[in-house]
Specification:
The protein is an alpha/beta fold. The chain folds into 4 domains: about 270 residues, Rossmann fold (3-Layer(aba) Sandwich), CATH 3.40.50; about 130 residues, 3-Layer(bba) Sandwich (Glucose Oxidase, domain 1); about 35 residues; about 110 residues, Immunoglobulin-like, CATH 2.60.40.2310. One of its GO terms (biological process) is proteolysis. InterPro entries: PA_domain, Peptidase_S8/S53_dom, Peptidase_S8/S53_dom_sf, Peptidase_S8_Ser-AS, Peptidase_S8_subtilisin-rel, SBT, Subtilisin-like_FN3. It holds the Pfam family PA.
């Protein structure tokens, strides 16, 4: 049994009319009149008439490697293989690299595509949709009127619309992403001559980053970056706790997730008239206009097999919060027990943030605070509580740092601030597999061409598409220079003029959440100055961390033996030429000096840059020299920052600031984070 939903009225909201019907084989769209809302490419201000998209021609000659669970290549409904990727944008490898080569586990498969047919192997298809979604986000030409059953309806297009895609399947439903398969995928992508590698998986098995020599992606990406390939990697979905990041090696471009300016509402209207904000991706067959208040009952946590059908049949069931953010299964438990709707408390650690789920009955997710309000209302009604739901779509202040996006500090290298940037990763519409439903439930037979999902996995390919265009527009820049351009031109204000908020708390976010702030593709095209890094400096970085020659050989994999007594030319990992500053004080009167160099890549041959400093609380910051005079084009200048603690009265474990170099035209900004003594035991132990 399920509940059908009334047809919507003109406008952004409508009321559901609840009645019990058999579950149809295919749930039909119920939202025929919702307006189109801006896509993520529009949110990123990408325009064919100006800026990065025009300068790069959409990354026409660039190849993006997507290492993931593969793609769905079959042509369905006479549409493209990747619905947001036209056939002209899919890549055929050179003749010298054709043929499937297997990794040591005999399971890695490269599936480069041309048109709608795999050239190499059908084993590269995917059953979970993850790889299809990430690939079609990074690149692909436009498809009009794309939607998930009218949710997010509009023009779907890859971030780099002209780039070519090379898909490397290294993840499998049965075995996950084995180290041997990931390493093989990287090696093949390097050999195939790709320009960008996009990888939306973590480098370890736990919720936090492994040590670098045990980090599959850190090791695999090292040689790619040495060969000039930019590697964009997801930061992980273990937020909002501190030190939850994955992919924290400094040669990686680590991407956190942010919201865009749309939400899919499913608000709860209680019998007393109070409205509780909720969100949902429910789709169902329209029945009739109108609204009904339905009896509301408590289902505790709606555990499978625990609901009493005699008490919940024909009613809306309130389900308690849990630690697992995807709540679709709870709605299914309610449906099988005869309930006609579900109100599901959100994930406790996400605080005020709520994430929509693909429900197959009228159901909505609410915050833990909303859940407590409904509980209080139900107590006051003594068994006569009622509710209904109002579905709609709204624009909202954005970006915000997504609650699930993993946070710093970096426990493996506290002197390297991560993540590097944030990008759209919530409510992202992209192509989907024809082999899986959006819910994964046995009773859900829907096979949509597009799906809306969330995660740093979705943020990562947005940045991969951006760096592909930067690679095309600025072919002489190194991977580190491209990363620097993205970081120093990022912005920290939302569309309401406030500092980007943390979705968990609705308060201003910190650099540990948003890092160098939200990507701005058009500004990154012309950053003024860049912080470049030589390959030898990454080896020196590993030496400074105390890695042995044998451990470093796991990264270089070229037979060479590193002598750290010769290689290490710097005394501290914080001297790596990174476009950010992370300071860890050992006492309340400590002093730390960090050194950097910047290269002029701006349009002025002989600019003079002047520094301005926003000092973290309890810290005196001096910059020497305070002015940088460049002569003769792309020259390099050095400077150093000294941080002096006077933190006797500082009560926070972290304080934040920034430094900005400006010549009157360009502004080049780097965040500053300070960790105080006893502020983070794991960080302190890592120094």
């Amino acid at each position: 049994m399920h509940v059908v939903v009334a047809a919507c009225q003109r406008g952004a909201q409508f009321m559901i009319d609840i009645s019990v019907q058999p579950l149809p084989s295919t749930l039909r769209p119920c939202l025929p009149c919702w307006p189109s809302y801006p896509t993520t490419t529009e949110f990123l201000h990408l325009s064919e008439s100006s800026g990065l998209l025009r300068a790069s021609r959409g990354a026409l000659r660039t190849v993006i490697s997507v290492i993931d669970s593969g793609v769905y290549p079959k042509d369905r409904a006479r549409r493209s293989t990747l619905p947001s990727s036209a056939t002209a944008s899919l890549w055929e490898p050179s003749s010298s690299t054709k043929g499937t080569r297997l990794g040591s586990a005999a399971s890695f498969v490269r599936v480069s595509l041309h048109g709608n047919r795999p050239l190499l192997s059908t084993k590269g298809t995917t059953g979970d949709g993850h790889g299809t979604h990430t690939a079609s986000t990074a690149a692909g030409s436009a498809v009009e009127d794309a939607s998930f059953f009218n949710y997010g309806k509009g023009r779907a297009v890859g971030v780099a619309p002209s780039a070519r895609i090379a898909v490397y399947k290294a993840c499998w439903t049965e075995t996950g992403c084995k180290e041997s398969d990931v390493l093989s995928a990287f090696d093949e992508a390097i050999a195939d001559g790709v320009n960008v590698i996009s990888i939306s998986i973590g480098g370890g098995e736990g919720p936090r980053a492994p040590e670098f020599h045990n980090d599959t992606i850190a090791k695999a990406a090292f040689n790619a970056v040495r060969k000039g390939i930019i590697v964009s990697a997801a930061a992980g979905n273990e937020g909002p706790g501190d030190s939850t990041l994955q992919n924290v090696a400094p040669w990686l471009l680590t991407v956190g997730a942010s919201t865009i300016d749309r939400r899919f509402l499913a608000n709860v209207v209680l019998g007393n008239g109070e409205t509780i904000t909720g969100v949902s991706l429910y789709t169902g067959a329209p029945l009739s206009l109108g609204a009904s208040q339905v009896q509301l009952v408590d289902g505790d946590f709606c555990s499978d097999g625990k609901l009493d059908a005699s008490k919940v049949a024909g009613k809306i069931v309130l389900c308690g919060p849990s630690d697992y953010p995807r709540h679709t299964w709870k709605g299914d438990v309610v449906r099988r027990a005869g309930g006609v709707g579900a109100i599901i408390g959100g994930t406790v650690k996400y605080g005020r943030d709520i994430l929509p789920a693909h429900h197959i009955i009228p159901a909505t997710s609410i915050s833990v605070y909303g859940y407590m309000k409904i509980q209080s209302y139900m107590t006051s009604q003594q068994g006569s509580a009622t509710a209904t739901m109002v579905y709609g779509q709204e624009t909202s202040s954005a970006p915000r740092v997504s609650s699930f996006s993993s946070r710093g500090p970096n426990i493996r290298a506290p002197g390297i601030l991560k993540p590097d940037v944030i990008a759209p990763g919530e409510s992202i519409l992209a192509a989907w597999t024809g082999e899986a439903s959006p819910t994964g439930l046995d009773d859900d037979t829907r096979r949509p061409q597009f799906n809306i999902i969330y995660g740093t996995s979705m943020a990562c390919p947005h940045v991969s598409g951006i760096v592909a265009m930067l690679r095309e527009a600025q072919p002489t820049w190194s991977a580190a220079a491209i990363k620097s351009a993205l970081m120093t031109t990022a912005y920290n204000m939302d569309n309401a003029g406030d500092v980007i908020k943390d979705a968990t708390t609705r308060k201003a976010s910190t650099p540990f959440a948003r890092r160098a702030d939200h990507v701005d593709p058009n500004r990154a095209l012309d950053p003024g100055l860049v912080y470049d890094v030589r390959n030898s400096e990454y080896i020196a970085f590993l030496c400074t961390l105390g890695y042995t020659a044998e451990q470093i050989a796991l990264f270089t994999r070229d037979g060479s033996v590193t002598d750290c007594s010769i290689t290490t030319s710097k005394k501290d990992v914080t001297d790596l030429n990174y476009p950010a500053f992370s300071v860890v004080f050992k006492s309340d009167n400590d002093k730390v000096t960090q050194r950097r160099r910047v290269t002029n890549v701006g349009k002025f041959v002989s600019p003079t840059y002047t520094v301005s400093v926003t000092s973290p609380s309890g810290v005196r910051v001096t910059v020497n020299p305070p002015k940088l005079h460049f002569l003769g084009g792309p020259t390099t200048k050095r400077y150093e920052l000294t941080f002096v603690a006077h933190g006797e009265d500082v009560t926070d474990k972290y304080t934040f600031g920034s430094i900005t170099w400006s010549d009157g035209t360009y502004t080049v900004t780097s965040p500053v984070t300070v960790t105080w003594p006893d502020g983070d035991e794991e960080v302190a132990a890592a120094i």
